[in-house]
Amino acid sequence: MQPPYVAVANAEDLEPGRFLKVEAEGRAFLIAMIGDDFYAVEDLCSHEDYPLSYGCLDGDRIKCSLHGSRFSLKTGEPLDEPADQPIATFAVVIDEGQIWIDPSRAMNAAD
Ligand code: FES
């Protein structure tokens, strides 16, 4: 893989229905495996900048443990109040047994 992709974990460290907290470029991210698909989001709730890694997965959603908002791992959209802004989602690629993410640009960022 080429920059801006960064290797963040071994693919074998992640199992379906689980997530890993990883670091890239000084920021924290969650990598989740849902079925055969991988998702990356910033480890930051959009409501009060609380780490989503303290929360839990609910299907293809991550639930914030502070006030309970759930976010789609696919789109970053909030599904419950009190959060009303999306979380940042990032591209994920599996290559040569490594999980790579592109931390340089959120896929759901407004241009
Ligand atoms: S800090 Fe996550 S829902 Fe409030």
Automatic annotation (TrEMBL):
It comes from the Bacteria. Residues 6-101 form the Rieske domain. The keyword Oxidoreductase applies. Keywords: 2Fe-2S, Dioxygenase, Iron, Iron-sulfur, Metal-binding, Oxidoreductase. GO terms for molecular function: 2 iron, 2 sulfur cluster binding; dioxygenase activity; metal ion binding. Pfam families: Rieske (PF00355). InterPro entries: Rieske_2Fe-2S, Rieske_2Fe-2S_sf. Its cofactor is [2Fe-2S] cluster. PROSITE patterns: RIESKE. Gene3D superfamilies: Rieske [2Fe-2S] iron-sulphur domain (2.102.10.10). Belongs to the bacterial ring-hydroxylating dioxygenase ferredoxin component family. This is Ferredoxin subunit of nitrite reductase and ring-hydroxylating dioxygenase.
